Amino acid sequence: xxxxxxxxxxxAKHPGENEYLQAVQEVLESIEEVYNENPKYEAAKIVERLxxxxxxxxxxxxxxxxxxxxxxxxxxxxxFNAALGAYKGGLRFHPAVNxxxxxxxxxxxxxxxxxxxxxxxxxxxxxxFDPMGKSDAEIMRFCQAFVYELWRNIGxxxxxxxxxxxxxxxxxxxxxxxxxxxxxxxxxxxxxxxSFGWGGSLIRPEATGFGAMYxxxxxxxxNGDTMKGKKIALSGFGNVAWxxxxxxxxxxxxxxxxxxxxxxxxxxxxxxxxxxxxMLDMRxxxxxxVEDMATKFPKAAKFTAGKKAWSVKCDIACPCAFQNELxxxxxxxxxxxGVQYVxxxxxxxxxxxxxxxxxxxxxxxxxxxxxxxxxxxTSGLEICQNAEHxxxxxxxxxxxxxxxxxxxxxxxxxxxxxxxxxxxxxKGANIAGxxxxxxAMLAQGII
Length: 447
Ligand code: GLU
Known about the structure:
The protein is an alpha/beta fold. It contains 17 helices and twelve strands. β1 and β2 form a beta hairpin. α2 packs parallel to α5. It starts with a helix and ends with a helix. The site of glutamic acid has 11 residues, from β3 and α15.
């Protein structure tokens, strides 16, 4: 395989799908060596097969808003790769959603799900629907209309969507309700991220953030250090940042920044439990303003409009919001301010030039597909519980999640360490994730 050639062909076939091309390029560059050492991969055209989704559903979603106007959105489900199991991955509701974004996310999901060692294939979906400012009834009608189109193509052994940006417990509830009505069966594993009490798993809401902090703790330990007193900057204030802040506090670290589209909230003494709880209210308000934290806690939090979390001096930087949210300039600012670790919690949260700058400065950098895998891993555990018709305790789930994250960390180190003992977490995650999928594809023949 020659990465340049493959990329040239892909660019010609999929012009302008920048996020998707960026995600593919990063993986191919990491695996090139391993791939070329195994002629069986080349013979079976593993890479050429892996970069194209099995199929993409694209559909019109029509619904009526509170004023009685008809609204039309575009919905998608990208079923990317099923070598390891039924398709699994979230749904994103955001006005910027398009095929490129969902293909990048679906592609990343293949390797992330592989790293969990659970039987999960890779998929992703969503719609260009903007949940901001919508009433609860509008959200419900949209979710119902979305599932009305997709329900035949999902199911516990077919494809199991979950939440992502703009899709949380409430949306999953509305989608599951409609799914169940149409399918006429209680296939609880058809969607994950359900509420506890009707098939949801304890710890699923916290899982992405908890898992990320378990991974970061290992990175810090690798350097003979501990999380105690470490200053952490998080971006966003959604579900992922909330879970990460909760665990960071428990591990003795100090979250000194959270951010939103309006700016950054700096908290020199660190976020408190009360403030973390308030993040949930901020999200539920649908205002999407991080300034609300400083309004509520004026002594503890200072809001600066138009600034990112990366302008705040910290030891650990964790993008938790959206792809490409941390650019080269941000990386340079973090490095100048003495950042010691950068761990992506959002999917592809850092731009390639930002990653290069961080790696050049010898600051350990870990990619989203490894760091945030705790979310989908716990979705996998939710499916197990659904199949057993049982609920595990929070301790049971958390213990399994912790072990999965430790194993992912160990795999990244195993495949990412060079002859001099330097660890490249990006390479480690991509190689480990790829090998499991590629070997499964080889074993299952040319399909
Ligand atoms: N959207 C999450 C992710 O990016 C979770 C997916 C899931 O639980 O299926 O991995």
